Fold each of these.
Amino acid sequence: MVRPRVFYANPQTAPSNAFQADTLAGGPALLAQALAEFDAAAEALRAAGVEVLVMDAAGGQDLPDALFPNNWLSTHADATVVLYPMLAANRRAERNALMLERLQAEFGFKVARTLDLSPLEDQGLIVEGTGSLVLDRRRRVAYACLSARSHPEAITHACEALGYQARMFSASDPRGQPVYHTNVMLAVGSQVAIACLDSLPDRAERDGLQHALEAGGAVVVGIDHGQMAALCANVLELAGADGPMLAVSTRAWRAFSTAQRRLLERHLQPVPVNIDTIEHHAGGGIRCMLAELHLPRG
C-alpha cells in the first residue's frame, strides 16, 4: 500500500472515471481524512493476519492517485515485476523504482525480471495493471473490459509477455459510458467471482463471461449497476490468518443483499473497511489500494 502525500479528485482522470467526484476540493483537511481511512484500512488487514507493507508516495511531486499502486505495478510468482502504461500524465510519475528496490533490499523479495510496458504510452497504448486486467492466476486468464485505459493491443502485449489468455469484452454504465477499469465490475477469487454482468450490453459477451467464470469453478455473485457504483466488485481476496478473507469497503458491504453477504461468508471472511472519503473523491476502492505481492522470498 502506498500512503499518499496529497489527496484530491484528479482532474486528469475524471473524463474516463464516472465513479469519482467532479469536485477539485482538496487541502489539509481532506488529506487528513484520507490518511485516517488509509491507516485504519491497513491496520484492519493486519489484524486479519495479512502482511501489509506500507510505503510513502514519492516526495516532491503532485500525485493525487498515488494510493492506487495496482495500476502501475503487478508482481508474479516467477519473480516477475510488471510496470504498466498509464493514461493520465500525472499518474506516470507514480512508477517508483525505489519502492521496487526496497521490496528486495528491506523485505527480502526476489525480482528476476522487470517487464517495463510503460513505453507503450508513446504509442497511445494503455493497460493499467490489475485495474485493467483482472487476473485469474490459477487458470492464467486475464479478464479485461475495453476503455480509454485498457487498449486491446496493450492488453494483448501484456498477456503474451506473461503467458495469460486474454478475455476482452465491452462494459458500460447505465449512461453508456465505458467502465473505466475492469476491477470495478469484476473480481475473481479462488472460489467466488463477483461480476456486474448487466454492464455487458452484448448478450453473447455477457453469457461468455459468465460461462468462463463458472468453468473456472467460481460461484458467481451477480451484482447490478447500483452495486457496481457502490464498488461491490472492487474487492480483493487475500490470505488471512484463518484462511481466505475479503477486503471490502463498508459502503460496498452494505450494498450487498443479505443473501449475497451470506453466500460470500460461506467462502470468505469479510473485512470491511471505511474508505468513504477515498471512494467518493478518487473513484476507486480498497482493491485499487492493494498491489498484491506474489514474488518469492529468499
Amino acid sequence: MQKPLEGLKVVDLSRFIAGPYCAMKLGDMGAEVIKVESPGKGDDSRALGPPFLEGESAYYMSFNRNKKSITLNLREKEAREVLHKMIAEADVFVENFRIGVTEKIGLTYEDVKKIKEDIIYCSITGYGHNSPYREKPSFDVMIQGEAGLMSITGFPDGPPQRVGVAIADILGGFHAVEGILLALLVRQKTGKGQFIDVSLMDSIIAILTYQAGNFLATGEAPMRVGNRHPMITPYESFETSNGYVIFAVGNQRLWENFIKVLGREDLNEDPRFADMKNRNQNPAELKKILEEITRQKTTEEWVAVMEKAGVPCGRIRTIDQVLTDPHVDVREMVVEREHPKAGLIKLIGVPTKLSLTPGDVTLPPPTLGQHTVEILKGLGYSDAEISGFKDNGIV
C-alpha cells in the first residue's frame, strides 16, 4: 500500500533530536530519508548512553528509524560533490547546525538553491535566524528555561522543573514537519521551493497558549501550581492509600457527580467550593479536604468508582506499565524490527493512523554508514570510485 510521502527524497544533515525527529516522521510516511553523518563518529547521539544494544545507542535509535545512513567527510571537496549530487535529486534538505556553520561549509539556503532551484530547505535552530540571540548555543533544557516553560512546571514550594522529555527539541521537529508539508503544498501550486526557519524557542512559546493568554490579559505572570490546573478545580493528582489518582473535574455537572461519589455533597453548601470560580480561589483548602478522603482507598478503587460515575480520572503510571498496556499492542505503538547489529529490537510505532495510506516502521535505525555504498552506486559512482573514496577518507 502506498504511503503519503512515497517518492519524496530528503537529505538530512541534522543530529541529536530536533532535526532527526523531523526527518524520522517524514520517513514514517514513506519519504526516502538519507542521513548524512561524519565518518567514524556519526550523529553525536550515537555516543549517548547507556543503554546500548550491541554497541548501538538506544537514545540514537529512538530518533532515527526509517532512514538510510551515508558517511561523508564534508571537509573534503569530493565529499561535498557527492552531497551536491544527492541534493540535486532531493526535494527536502534538513539541517540543525549552529548559526554560521552552513556559511562556512557552503550549505546555506542560497548555496543549496543553486544546486536545486525548487528545494525545500528546513533549518532548525535554538532561536531562529533573525533573533537577537541567534548565535547563542541552545540545548533543550536551556530553551525550556529561557522560553518560560520551567517557570510554570513544578510545585510552588519547589524549584522550576524541566519536562521529562526533550519537549523543545521534539516540538521543534513537529513544527519542522508542519513547515515542510506546507511548503510542499505551495510548491505543488507554484513550482517554487522555500526556506523554513524553525526556532526551538518559538516552538515552546507557541504551546504556552492559555498561560501566555493569562499574562497578556492581566499583565501578571503565571506561576507554578504543581499538577493543578490554573483555571479548573479540582484538576490534579491526589494521594491514595497506595499511590496517586488524577481527577479532572472540568465543569459543574462533573463536580456534582464527583462529590456524590465522595459522599460529600455538603461541599456545595460551602461558599468556597460551590462553583468553579470559588473553587479556583481556594484550591489548597479543597485539596486538603479531598485527600483526607482519597487516602482511604487505593488508586484502582477510586478509578473504578469514578469511571462508573462518569468522572474523568486516571492513574499515574510508570513507563513500563504504559508500554505493556493492551492499548499499546492494539494501537501498534511498540513494534519489533530486526536490526543488523542489535538483533530484534523494539521501537515506538507511528502515532498518526491513516486509513488508506498508513505510515509504518519499515527500516530500523541504520548503523553508521550502513547504506554508503548503496547510495553512492545509486548516484552513478563505480566500484573503483567508491574504493577510492574509502581509501582517501572521503566516506
Amino acid sequence: MIDIEQDLTFESSDKIVIGCSAGPDSMALFDLLLKLREKYHFQIICAHVNHNIRKQSEEEERFIKEFCDKCQVMLEVMKIEKYGDDNFHNEARNIRYHFFEEVVEKYNANYLMTAHHGDDLIETIMMRLVRGSNLEGYSGFHQTLDMGTYKLVRPLIYYTKEELEEYDQINKIPYYIDESNHKMKYTRNRYRKNILPFLKEEDKNVHLKFLKFSQNLQEASKYIEKERDKALHEVITSTGRIDISKFLQIESYIQKEILYYILEEFYQDDLILVNDKHIDLLKYLIESNKSNMQVNLPNEIVAIKSYNEFYLKRETDEITEYEIEFSTYADLPNHHYIKLIDETIENSNNICRLSSSDICLPIIIRTRKIGDKIQVKGLNGNKKVKDIFIEHKIPLEARDTWPIVVDSSGKILWIPGLKKSKFDQQKDKKCDIIMKYC
C-alpha cells in the first residue's frame, strides 16, 4: 500500500503542480494525487517536458494530453528545441525545473511534486560519494524543500521503483518506458544495474537506511551551515573577496565549506562540474607562498590569489559585450535569466513593470557602456550606473556582464536586482510588460 499522506496535509484550496514524464514513477504519483483529489478537492496541474530526443517523445506528449483531458487536469507542456554543449542530463534537469517553477508561478501553486523514489536517492548518494562532495551533496536530495512561496515535495521517497511498478500493474495505470534508462553509457544507469541489486540482496529495505542516512547528513549540514555563515561574515571583504589571513585562522573543515559556498554562487545549476578535487586545488592556491597565482576551473572560471585576497572570476574575453533583444525569456552570461511573467505581488528590484506606451520597443538587454546613466525611480535627475555598482559593492569582474535593460532608443529602464528607472509602474498602475530577474 502506497501512502503519500503520511508527511503531508491537504486542503481544498491547494494547487499542486506535478512534474510528469509519462513514466511508471510519475504516472503512479499522478494516480495517487487523482485519488486524493476525490477526498480533498484540490486542484492538480500537470507539467510535462518533451525532451525531443527520442521518437517516442511525441507519442508520450499526446498520451499525457489525452490522459489529462480524461481526468480533467490542467496541462502545461514545454518542448525543448535544442541543447547546448553541456552535460545533457544536467542541462535537461535545469530546463525542467525552470519550466516547473514557471508553471508554479502561473497558477500560484503551493506544491510542486516530483516522482523521485527511494532507488533514485540511493543512486544519487552513491554517485556523489564516488565523485566527491560536501555533507549537503552527500545527502542526495531532500524529501521536502521550502522554496518560499511553495514547497517542492518528493512524496515517493519511501518506496522503491519495483513497488511503484507493482502499484501501476495492480491499478492498471498506463505508462511509457524511456529506452535510454537501459543504456550503460549513462553513469546513473550503471549504478542502477550494477550496485542497486547487490545492496537490495543485502537488505530489501536498504532504501530506508539510505533515507535515514540522508536525513542525518541534512541535519548535520544545517548546523555546519550556521557555523560557515558566521565565519564567512568574518573573512569576506567589502569587495566580496576573501581575506586570506583571516581565512587561514578558521578551522579547515569550515574553510572547505566556505569554498563550496563560493563555488555554488558561481556555478549555481552547474555545480555538478566541480568536486572535492577542486576544493583541494583552491586550498593549495590559498596556502601557497606565492603572492600572485591563479588556477583554471571548469566553464572558464578562474581562481585568483592576489597578495592577501582570494576570489573567483569568470573569463569574459568572449562575453564582455552582449546585446539581446528581449521577447519572453533571456539567458544571461552571468548565469541568471530574465523572463516575462503575467503577474506578481512582488515589488523588489528583481521585478520591473513597464507600459509599452511609455517606451520604444523592442526591449534590449545589454552590457554597461561608459557614461551610462539612469533616471532612478523616485529621484530627480540622472545617476551614473557606475556609482550604483559601487554603492551596491558589485565586484569589478561582475560589472562587465551585469545586465542593463534599455528600450530601442537607449533609455535605461532597469538595472535588474539593483535599481528601477522612472519608467517602472506602481503595482496598482496599468502596465502590459512585467519582467522578472532570476
